[in-house]
Amino acid sequence: MPKKYKALGSIYYVWIALFIIAPIILLFYQSFLDIHGNFTFDNYRNYFTSSNYMLMTANSFLSAFLITAATLIIAYPFAYFLNTSKHKNFWLLLVILPTWINLLLKAYAFMGLLNRNGSIARLFGLASEGILFTNAAFILVAAYIELPFMILPIFRSLESIPNNFIIASTDLGANKWQTFRRVILPLSMNGVMAGVQAVFIPSLSLFLITRIIGGNKVITLGTAVEQHYLITQNWGMGSIIGIVLICLMFIVMALLNIKNRGAK
After folding, report:
1. Looking at residue 57, which CATH number applies to its domain?
2. Which residue, of 36, 68, 120, 226, has the fewest CB within 10 Å?
3. Does 75 map to a domain?
4. Which residues share a beta bridge with 33?
5. Which of 142, 140, 152, 145 is nearest to 75 (CA)?
6. Cα–Cα dist 42/196, whole Å
7. In-domain check, residue 45
8. How many domains does the chain have?
9. Would 21 be classed as within a structural domain?
10. Nearby residues of 236 by Cβ (< 8 Å), 6 or more positions away
11. DSSP secondary structure letters along 117-140
12. For residue 34, is it within any domain?
C-alpha cells in the first residue's frame, strides 16, 4: 500500500482510538466508582442481583425484538416490491426522506397523532383515551423510525441478485414461490442480517422515544442510563449499564454473524 494511503488510514485509526476505544475504557473505569468517586464492586453486584435491572434487561430485549420483527415483516415485502418496481428511484427517495427529519420532530409529531384527539387514536376507536404512553405506541413509533434501516440493506441484497439466477430457476421448472424460497430468499439473507443488526442493536438502548412516546410507563436500559447520569448523578451505575449494553450488542452481532456464516 502506498505511504500516502497509509497516512490517510492512520487518521481513521486515530478517530477509532479517540472516539470509540477511549470512551469505552472511560466507561469501564467509571463503572468501578460509586457516587462519591470511591473504588467499589457494588455497581456490578447491585446490577446482577437486582430483579429490577434484570427485568429492565429482559424488557429491553423484548422491545428490541418486537421492533425488529415489526420492521422486518414490513420491510422485506416492500424491498421486494421496490426491487421489481419500474420507479424504484422514486420509492427509494420516499424511504430515505424520513431519515432527513430530526428524530425529536418526528417523536413530537407522533405525540399529536397518538393522543386522544389524534387521527390514529380515532382510527382504532380509542379516541376516549388515546394510545400515547403505552408499549404499543412505543413499538409503533420506534418501528417507523427504524424502518428505513431495515429496508435499505434488504433492497441492496435483492438488487445484487443476478437476473440470470431467476431465469435459470424458471427454465428448470420452478414456479414463482419455489424461485423465491430457493433462490431469492437465501441470496438476500445477507441484507436481512445487516438490517436486523442495524435495527436490533440501536433498539436496545433507545431512550428519547421511550421518554416522549412511552412516558414513564416504558422502562428500558436506555432510560435507566439517562436517569443515572442526569437525575441521580450515579455515573458508576449508569456506566455499568452502558457496559452491559455494549456487551449485549457484541453478543448479538456475533450470534448473527455465526448464523449468517452457517446459512452460507
Report:
1. 1.10.3720.10
2. 36
3. yes
4. 39
5. 152
6. 34
7. no
8. 1
9. no
10. 30, 31, 32, 33, 34, 35, 40, 43
11. TSHHHHHTT-TTT-STTSHHHHHH
12. no
Cα distance between residue 256 and residue 195, in whole Å: 11
- Torsional sign, CA 254, 251, 96, 78: positive
SS3 assignment, position 33: strand
Q: Cα-flanking dihedrals φ and ψ of residue 59, to 5°?
A: -65, -40
Whether the model pTM is above 0.85: yes
d(CA 23, CA 46): 23
Instruction: Tell whether the torsion through CA atoms of 52, 54, 60 and 62 is positive or negative.
Output: negative
Q: Each residue's pLDDT tens digit in the chain (264 positions)? A: 566 667 777 888 888 999 989 999 999 999 999 888 899 999 999 999 999 999 999 999 999 999 999 999 999 999 999 988 888 888 889 899 888 988 888 888 888 888 877 777 677 666 566 678 888 889 999 999 999 999 999 999 999 999 899 889 988 888 889 999 999 999 999 999 999 999 998 898 888 888 888 877 778 888 889 889 888 889 999 999 999 999 988 888 888 877 666 555
- Give, in order, the Cα–Cα distances in Å from 210 to each of 2, 46, 74, 141: 48, 24, 22, 10
Q: Which domain holds residue 117?
A: 50-262
Helix (H) or strand (E) holding 2: none
Query: First vs last Cα of the chain: how many Å apart?
Result: 31
DSSP 8-state symbol, 206? -
